[in-house]
Each structure stands twice: as structure tokens, then as C-alpha cells.
Specification:
Elements (H helix, E strand, L loop, with lengths): L8 E11 L5 E12 L8 H7 L7 E7 H5 L7 E5 L13 E5 L5 E9 L3 E5 L8 E13 L2 H6 L18
Antiparallel strand pairs: 1-2, 1-8, 3-8, 4-7, 5-6, 6-7
Length: 169
């Protein structure tokens, strides 16, 4: 009998996220993502709801309006500065920079544009303002262990290392 996804089941799946407007694949997760259903909110609530009752081998597509998850784009979170004001370590498109406000709140900004004179960072989630399709394939469904339920996901055991092979430093 195939087990179905429900509360306290350990689930592994792969997924990709496609921009509904352009058809571009925004992200692909091919290494299985593991979580305990009903315990861990790794995925958007709409995705978790659609997974309920599915079993190994099932594939689903879930449309998501990211404005409902991340809110609308906020152009006040986009900054451009002269490149000489930016440390060299951050001068690469796709680099994440964590900044702190005067009140101690942190936000991640991603370098989105760069030329010889300027660099632009964006503090919006990359999915803001987009409608996407989550395409998921269920790989594993089984009873979660007590440890997995407590953690909300897989328990990663430490590798079994022969003590005689460890480096002395």
C-alpha cells in the first residue's frame, strides 16, 4: 500500500520554480528536499496543501502569486552607488550582502547590476511581484521518526570517520 502525505509523514521531493509570465526556470532543486509534513513550513502553505494526500511518484504543479507570500516589490529597497564605495568582495552580480539598519534589523540585498561606474543592490525577495509555478515530484513518503518530528525534517547523522585518519589540527 502506498503511503500518502499527511501530518507526521517524512516527505522527500524535488521541485522547480518557473516564472509564469516568461516561462523561465528560476530555480531547480534536484537534490531531494526532506521535511515532516504538518510540522515544518519549508514550503508555501498552498504547496503544502496540494501535497496532502499525494504519494510516491506523484507530480503536481501549483501556481503561486508571490505577492501574497513576499508582498509587492518595494522600489525603495533598490540602491545604486558608485562602484568605488563598494568593497571588492561584493562586486559580483548575485552576491548577497547582509545590511543592518540603525535599529539593528538585518535585511539581505542582492547585487543585481554592475558596470564600470555603479553597482545596484536589491533588498526585495527575488520572487516579489512574480507569479510562479511550483512543479514538484514526490520521491519518498514514510512515517517520520520522533527525532524527525522534533526537528521538522531529516536528521543528518555525522559522517562515520575513522579516528586514525583524522588530521592532528
Amino acid at each position: 500500500m502506498n503511503e500518502t502525505i499527511q501530518t507526521n509523514k517524512f516527505v522527500e521531493l524535488t521541485y522547480k520554480v518557473t516564472d509564469k509570465k516568461t516561462g523561465n526556470v528560476l530555480t531547480t532543486v534536484e537534490f531531494p528536499l526532506g521535511y515532516v509534513h504538518g510540522v515544518n513550513e519549508t514550503l508555501a502553505p498552498a504547496v503544502l496543501s496540494e501535497l496532502e494526500g499525494k504519494s510516491v511518484g506523484d507530480a503536481i504543479e501549483v501556481p503561486i502569486d508571490c505577492n501574497q507570500i513576499y508582498g509587492p516589490r518595494d522600489e525603495s529597497l533598490v540602491f545604486t552607488d558608485r562602484i568605488e564605495n563598494v568593497p571588492e568582495d561584493y562586486r559580483e552580480i548575485g552576491t548577497t550582502i547582509t545590511m543592518e539598519s540603525e535599529n539593528g534589523a538585518t535585511r539581505n540585498f542582492i547585487v543585481t547590476r554592475m558596470d564600470d561606474k555603479t553597482l545596484t543592490v536589491d533588498g526585495n525577495n527575488p520572487l516579489c511581484g512574480r507569479e510562479v509555478i511550483f512543479s514538484l515530484k514526490v520521491l519518498t513518503v514514510r512515517d517520520a521518526t520522533e527525532e524527525e518530528i522534533e526537528e521538522g525534517g531529516p536528521i543528518n547523522a555525522a559522517p562515520d570517520i575513522d579516528e586514525s585518519l583524522k588530521m592532528p589540527f
